[in-house]
Amino acid sequence: MAAVIRRIEYYLPERVVTNKQLEEQYKKWEADKIFKKIGIAERHVVSENETAVDLAFEAAQKVLQGYNKDNIDFLILCTQSPDYFLPTSACVLQDKLGLRKDIGAFDYNLGCSGYVYGLAMAKGLIASGLASGILLIMSETYTRHIHSGDLANRTIFGDGAAATIIEKSPQEHFIEFVLGTDGSGMQNLIVPNGGMRHAKDARATETVNASGDVTSANCLYMNGPEIFNFTIEAVPAAVESVLKKSGLTMNDIDYVVFHQANKYMIDFLRKKIGIPMEKFFMDMTDTGNTVSPTIPIGLKKALDNNTIGPGSKVLLCGFGVGYSWGAAIIEM
Amino acid sequence: MKKEDFYYELIEYLEIEPVELNEGTALNSIEGYDSMAVMSLIAFCDEKFGKKINAQQIQQLTTVGSLMEFLGKENFEN
């Protein structure tokens, strides 16, 4: 059996932080300059009591509206900001959403590559006959990991969730995948404390970098230059590889949706690979980098404005924390 | 590449205020040389010179001249 994406919806928390608001807090900061460079004007940020499960629930409710939810026989959730160490967020959601009990549900821990991996797993579950209707959710609240004084990361990241329904189909729409991993880059995007290796430490030293951004080992650390270097190597290679594996060229591809890291970075990658501007999704203006939800949000926006439709061949590429990356070619 | 052209392109890439650059200009003294500009510096090295510059190498850069040295003195003429 083969797989097809049936529906996509996304949900963003209500609270919005604009560039203007950030400018008021950080005097040296210029809202217009930042927008021009990274393409982000505002980002949605969870309130104190809002969690990844809450965002996932809202996105799932939207995608299940008018859909027979008894068709869902597998629930998969990708997050790196789960409500609990245990239980699994997908189990909590199964109950909240009133899904069947004779279904599989699990979480997996990936960042920006999460959506491509999720589609790859969905393809496998359907091909093996283990599932026929999959609810795949990306839900992330990275802002919870970011120090309040870390302007660079507060500028880039936003919170959000996206829900996709994947069904079995007589014809294969998930054409090809390539996946990649390089754990040697683990230190370059990390929340060091809070897991079992290093407990959260209330007395953790706060460090200030040359740009004045504050962080501590309890919070997210990103080595921007190293992450950029990683993408310059990994992304063009993954795109080339998935095209080669599928026997297609960029001319056969109708549209490309990359993980929306920031405008400067992905536009650089676009030029380097040679993807025409008109085939390339680039819009993080009102969301920021929401981590794993950026690709399904992009697909949904492109579907809504009829840039893509049934039959469109779309190339996806997610890349980041891990390092982990993946590229896919799917037919809508 | 002529040094003057190099300075011009560097200013363009880094999107910094047009200033008189020379080999002795300290990078940290340039208005707007921040984490965004560093991202552009990586793009500049890759696109114009096909060279990868890692975070540690960026940290070790002191002046515009040290960047030119990293890129290879032989690439520049007066």
Topology (SSEs and partners):
The complex is a heterodimer of chains A (332) and B (78).
Chain A: E1 2-11, E2 16-18, H1 19-25, H2 31-38, E3 42-44, H3 52-64, E4 74-78, H4 89-96, E5 104-108, H5 114-127, E6 133-140, H6 151-156, E7 160-169, E8 174-181, E9 189-190, E10 207-208, E11 214-215, E12 221-222, H7 224-246, E13 255-258, H8 263-273, H9 294-304, E14 313-320, E15 324-331
Parallel strand pairs in A: 4-5, 4-6, 13-14
Antiparallel strand pairs in A: 1-7, 2-3, 6-7, 8-15, 9-12, 10-11, 14-15
Helix pairs in contact in A: 1-2, 3-4, 7-8
Chain B: H1 3-14, H2 35-49, H3 55-60, H4 64-71
CATH topology of the largest domain in chain A: Peroxisomal Thiolase, Chain A, domain 1
Radius of gyration of chain B: 11 Å
Query: What is the beta-strand fraction of chain A?
Result: 15-25%
Tell me about the largest β-sheet of chain B: none
> What oligomeric arrangement do these chains adopt?
heterodimer
Structure summary:
The complex is a heterodimer of chains A (332) and B (78). Chain A is an alpha+beta fold.
What features would you describe in this structure?
The complex is a heterodimer of chains A (332) and B (78). Chain A has 332 residues and is α+β, with helices and mostly antiparallel strands. Chain A has two domains: 2-171, Thiolase/Chalcone synthase (Peroxisomal Thiolase, Chain A, domain 1); 176-331, Thiolase/Chalcone synthase (Peroxisomal Thiolase, Chain A, domain 1, 3-Layer(aba) Sandwich), CATH 3.40.47. Chain A contains nine helices and 15 strands. Chain A has helices spanning 19-25, 31-38, 52-64, 89-96, 114-127, 151-156, 224-246, 263-273, 294-304, and strands spanning 2-11, 16-18, 42-44, 74-78, 104-108, 133-140, 160-169, 174-181, 189-190, 207-208, 214-215, 221-222, 255-258, 313-320, 324-331. In chain A, strand 4 (74-78), helix 4 and strand 5 form a beta-alpha-beta unit. Chain A is globular and about 55 Å long. With 78 residues, chain B is mainly α. Chain B has one domain: ACP-like (Non-ribosomal Peptide Synthetase Peptidyl Carrier Protein, Chain A, Orthogonal Bundle). Helix content of chain B is 53%, strand content 0%. Chain B is globular and about 30 Å long. The relative contact order of chain B is 0.22. The model of chain B has no long low-confidence stretch (mean pLDDT 90).
